[in-house]
Design a protein that fits this description.
about 650 residues, alpha/beta, GMP Synthetase, Chain A, domain 3, Metallo-beta-lactamase, Chain A, 4 domains, 7-stranded mixed beta sheet, 28 strands, about 35% helix
Length: about 650
């Protein structure tokens, strides 16, 4: 009866807030929103305050849509849009979602398509009866973005999504059960280790999974403990919340759909797209290495269809007693700290995700101010006593010195990078160094998913820092589009780069040297002492990257010619260039904890090696005087 009661309450509130003369032909719950359909769009088209007042009165997200009977036919509507939207918006495409009544307007200058205080959008609603959704035309072509946008607008997919959202709404707004409230967190992965991050948040009414990654350095136990009795059956989960797209947090999320999960996935819009990109590549790498693939591309599509994107600062109901708000965590594009509000304020928990508590070349620093908070689940990747990183500027200086030394001896430079985050940071540094004359003219080759991931960064400038955002908005000096960057788009091109005599810089995935195109460059360049390999990111325990970083002089690699393994000597110079990490170092972590507001009553540490978790816990107790624990996997901590 909960949904029916909400619909009745909203109907009554709408008549009092708006007017009893406005007729609503239908009221539905879709996801966490209440959607009102009306033939009288003029009552709403001139003012956004009406909807805001209604939402405040009923404390629900309100969407007003035109009744299908008053929508103009698509051809006529498109012609009318050409009259309403100013030419300065530079509309590149118009797509109609006939299932939901939305029209997607892709524009080079979306602000012009929206208008001052939404004036143009109001004219669109009034003029054609469709609900306008304005999206930015990506300045760099992204196959991933295009495919996702096309997929969710396919009529069959749109209908499935509409039915799914109704089902989610009924589950979100179901009646709560009587009894004492409790809040528990079960550690399913990523505790006292780096990799396979996964947490289960349980209350008396709800179960939510936060992240579902794999551990690239642990062949024996790469997956979270999803067979724990608290988790199964997966149909019992209310939702999955994904903090960011890196595979140690997202790789196994599609596997949940293999084993019966069919609920919502909450994440930011860039995280939705980046996760699909990385998961698709994960399948390719697993297949190429002859390893078992836990899911197929159809399960990634299922995940995309079930995604409910949320921007930073938006608060939404995700279960009968849980509200979720995302805040910027500064780690990679779209990465978020997840704030959960339990019940009527009984408890508030923040899962930090991976954080960077300083301004970087890409992002603003992580948010550490929250409305309320009693418990904090915090990463400890660089929580050790000696985990201090140099500044970004020092990292830039050292990287350019390594490159210039290598170029002097006619060597090549191989930089293993994560496709998302470190790649773009290094690109910005190389572009700046070249522009300022610190590097000579030379091509920088991008191999793997780097080009596609970079295109997604350009597609979401609102998630970047102010300086970079303005360059992309104004389409002047966009560093990602500099001529020095060349996309490696074929095996033949890769072989040509490997065999060339002149110096070259290659950024290649994967960042921990555990598969991907970096392996081919390593196989061919490792024996030559004139070449250099530069690590700019964290190398997890057990990965080939860590073994090379720690001095391995001989490695075994897959031989693409005969399918077996081949022994390769490592004579190339191995360098580590700090200052590029997307994680906070010890100094930044302590500053985050000491300045966080409000002060949590309990801190739980995860995403760190055992020694670093213990050392960080000691420092928090001594310097911040907070209660802190470092649980093991499969431990459950009751918060209230």
């Amino acid at each position: 009866m909960a949904v029916e009661n909400i619909i009745k309450e909203v109907r009554e509130a709408a008549q009092s807030v708006i007017s009893d003369t406005v007729e609503f032909t239908d009221v539905r719950v879709e996801g966490s929103s209440v959607v009102l359909y009306t033939r009288d769009m003029d009552a709403f088209a001139g003012s956004n305050d009406i909807v805001r007042k209604l939402a405040q009165k009923v404390r629900k997200r309100i969407i007003i849509r035109a009744d299908p009977a008053v929508r103009l036919p698509t051809k006529e509507a498109e012609e009318k849009l050409g009259e309403i939207i100013p030419a300065e918006a530079e509309v590149s495409s118009i797509r109609f979602d006939e299932i939901n009544g939305d029209v997607y307007i892709e524009a080079v200058n979306p602000g012009r398509a929206i208008g001052k205080f939404g004036a143009v959008l109001n004219d669109v609603r009034r003029g054609i009866g469709w609900n306008p959704i304005v999206i930015r035309d990506a300045p760099m072509e992204s196959t991933t973005l295009r495919e996702i946008r096309n997929y969710i607008l396919e009529p069959k997919v749109a209908q499935k999504r509409k039915d799914f959202m109704k089902r989610v709404g009924r589950k979100v707004f179901r009646d709560t059960i009587d009894g004492e409230q409790f809040v528990r967190i079960t550690a399913l992965g990523g505790y006292r280790e780096v990799g396979r991050s996964c947490h289960l948040l349980m209350t008396k009414d709800s179960k939510v999974l936060i992240d579902c990654g794999f551990n690239p350095g642990n062949d024996k136990e790469p997956s979270p403990f999803l067979n724990a009795p608290e988790v199964t059956p997966l149909e019992g989960l209310d939702a999955v919340v994904l903090t960011h797209a890196h595979l140690d947090h997202s790789a196994l999320l599609p596997m949940l759909f293999v084993y019966g999960f069919d609920g919502p996935v909450y994440c930011t819009p860039p995280t939705r797209d980046l996760a699909a990109l990385l998961q698709t590549d994960y399948i390719k790498i697993q297949n190429a290495e002859g390893k078992k693939v836990p899911y197929g591309s159809e399960h990634i599509r299922h995940q995309v269809r079930n995604c409910i994107p949320l921007n930073f600062g938006d608060t939404t109901d995700i279960a009968p007693d849980l509200k979720l708000t995302f805040h910027n965590s500064g780690h990679i594009l779209g990465s978020a700290s997840a704030h959960f509000h339990v019940g009527d304020g009984q408890h508030n928990i923040v899962f930090s995700g991976d954080i960077k508590f300083e301004n970087t070349w890409l992002f603003d620093r992580a948010v550490n101010r929250f409305p309320r908070m009693e418990a904090l689940v915090l990463e400890a990747t660089y929580g050790g006593f000696k985990d201090f990183q140099p500044s970004r500027e020092e990292g830039m200086r050292k990287l350019t010195e390594i490159i210039n030394r290598t170029v002097e001896r006619r060597g090549k430079i191989l930089i293993p990078v994560f496709a998302v985050g470190r790649s773009q940071e290094v690109m910005l540094v190389l572009e700046k160094a070249h522009r300022e004359g610190m590097l000579q003219d030379m091509d920088v080759f991008l191999d793997g998913m780097i080009w596609e991931a970079t295109a997604l960064h350009a597609a979401y400038p609102e998630y970047l820092n102010n300086n970079l955002r303005n360059k992309i908005y104004q389409n002047r000096g966009n560093p990602f589009r500099d001529d020095m960057f060349q996309k490696v788009d074929s095996v033949d091109m890769r072989q040509e780069i490997c065999s060339r005599d002149e110096p070259a810089i290659v950024l290649a995935t994967s960042g921990m040297v555990n598969g991907g195109p970096v392996m081919e460059y390593l196989r061919q360049w490792a024996p030559d002492r004139n070449n250099s390999m530069v690590f700019v990111g964290y190398q997890a325990s057990g990965t080939l990257g860590q073994r090379i970083q720690q001095g391995a002089r001989e490695i075994s690699l897959h031989d693409r010619d005969n399918g077996g393994m081949v022994s390769v000597p490592v004579n190339m110079n191995i360098e580590t260039c700090e200052g590029f990490s997307g994680h906070s170092d010890k100094r930044q972590l302590m500053r985050y904890v000491r300045t966080i507001r409000p002060r949590p009553k309990l801190v739980l540490l995860n995403h760190g090696d055992p020694q670093k978790c213990d050392q960080f816990a000691t420092d928090i107790r001594r310097k911040a005087r907070l209660k802190v624990e470092s649980p093991h996997n499969l431990e459950t901590i009751r918060l209230i």
